[in-house]
Amino acid sequence: RTSVVAIVGRPNVGKSTLFNRLVGARKAIVEDRPGVTRDRLYGVVNHDGKSYIIVDTGGLDFDDESLGSQIRVQAEIAIEESDLILFVVDAFDGIVADDREIADILRRSGRPVLVVVNKCDNPEREIAAQAAHELGFPILAVSAAHGRNAAELHDAVLARV
Ligand code: GDP
Ligand code: MG
């Protein structure tokens, strides 16, 4: 079957922006405030003659849930549905407690994970992004908004699906 790639991560780290970058269109809703993306978002990525389905779990809406349990639910869905998990963190914020909680869930799942350190808009950020190695997964520094390392991101995903 067609491979499924899931995007997970805290609100506001740039999941929707990354989704748009991979799909190549502005299909996701991007907002400055955390937690405002509402739609469950699926897209098809076609690249180098391969295609895969991408899911933005941040599009799932859990009005009644606390932030922590939303993140847990999103991670569980990503684990169940996907062949590869893109775990997005924010180079500006650094690694925070919620990131470590998501990492623990993903690690226990045994699923393939690539940490995408987003908002690496310049080389200095890219160096700081190396701190994400503490999460224990392979990492790739990108800027979803500016397209920095977009080709490397496509290649890294295609190599794993
Ligand atoms: P989500 O909540 O994880 O889906 O995050 P969004 O994709 O909605 O992005 C949250 C905010 O981060 C928006 O203001 C984006 O414009 C911004 N953002 C996303 N990617 C980047 C990036 O590569 N660099 C910078 N500087 N900002 C970004
Ligand atoms: Mg979003």
UniProtKB/TrEMBL annotation:
GTP 1 binds at residues 9-16, 56-60, 118-121. Coiled coil: none annotated. Residues 3-161 form the EngA-type G domain. GTPase that plays an essential role in the late steps of ribosome biogenesis. Associates with the 50S ribosomal subunit. Belongs to the TRAFAC class TrmE-Era-EngA-EngB-Septin-like GTPase superfamily. EngA (Der) GTPase family. This is GTPase Der. It comes from Nannocystis exedens. The gene is der.
